[in-house]
Design goal:
Blueprint lengths: L2 E14 L2 E14 L3 E5 L6 H8 L7 E6 L11 E4 L11 H11 L4 H14 L15 H14 L4 E5 L7 H18 L2 E6 L2 H7 L2 E5 L6 E6 L8 H5 L4 H13 L3 H7 L2
Parallel strand pairs: 3-7, 3-8, 5-6, 6-7
Antiparallel strand pairs: 1-2, 1-4, 8-9
Helix pairs in contact: 2-3, 2-4, 3-4, 8-9
């Protein structure tokens, strides 16, 4: 089987003053082409640093990492990253923000316009194409970020708690939009979150990191059919058990005790 991402013994340490801090260590991880993987972990456990290393935004200090294309078009990016904080250029309209990466890749203006129009419809921003970021809600700004990441034709989409700063209704709406976009595009997605429900709702597989230094302590396939909703998951007999297993992996507590506390 061909993997989009293969990590073996991956680790990252950095200096803080005279001290060396290990963000994560000994991470073995494989992500299939087209798979949606959630990385679940507590704050400070190194999951964001791991994501940045997988995305090649930072260098690892231990182990090996291979990121393998499946069949990207010439001149298109292998990967793109969406961060928690909105990152749209404030001096550009929504349309120009989404087009920016295409222009940087040398895509002709007419082709870029067609692609931007398609993405504006996909993320529900066609009516706001000429607005500036300060005229958008937080959810709309994140839609811009997702569209800009999709525009560059990336095979792999890395997402670092992209909905973490949003209110619950907006977060739920964007979760549904992301699931739909992933189903339509077939991209490989690596999604960092500290929410068990969000991890189960979106992923094919959930990978749990321990506290720092982050290590893979548990992996779980998500057995529920798509499309998924929060209410639909709650009605699944296996959902509470799966959530308890993931919570136990996060805290190191027995799953039976964790599940009992949630009753």
């Amino acid at each position: 089987m061909s993997f989009a991402i293969e990590a073996r013994g991956l680790g990252k340490s950095f200096a803080v003053g005279r001290r060396e801090v290990q963000a994560f260590a000994g991470v073995d991880l494989e992500v299939r082409h087209g798979e949606f993987v959630s990385i679940l972990g507590a704050s400070g456990g190194g999951k964001t640093t791991l994501l940045r290393v997988l995305a090649r935004l930072d260098e690892h200090t231990e182990g090996e990492l291979v990121v393998r294309p499946r069949g990207r078009s010439a001149g298109r990016a292998l990967s793109a990253t969406v961060f928690q904080e909105p990152s749209a250029f404030p001096w550009m309209t929504v349309r120009r923000n989404i087009a920016y990466g295409l222009w940087a890749l040398g895509v002709k203006r007419a082709e870029a316009k067609r692609e931007v129009d398609r993405l504006l419809e996909m993320v529900g921003l066609a009516a706001f194409a000429d607005n500036y970021p300060h005229q958008l809600s937080g959810g709309m700004k994140q839609r811009v970020a997702v569209a800009r990441a999709l525009a560059v034709g990336s095979e792999i989409l890395y997402m670092d708690e992209p909905f973490g700063l949003l209110d619950e209704p907006t977060r739920h709406a964007l979760q549904q939009d992301l699931a739909r976009i992933w189903a339509e595009t077939g991209k490989t997605v690596v999604f960092v979150t500290h929410s068990i429900q969000e991890a189960i709702l979106l992923a094919d597989r959930v990978v749990v990191l321990s506290s720092r230094p982050g290590r893979v302590v548990h992996q779980q396939q998500v057995p529920f059919p798509r499309p998924r909703t929060a209410l639909g998951l709650a009605a699944q007999p296996r959902y509470a058990e799966l959530a308890a297993e993931l919570q136990a992996a996060l805290t190191g507590a027995p799953a039976e005790l964790t599940q009992g506390e949630g009753r």
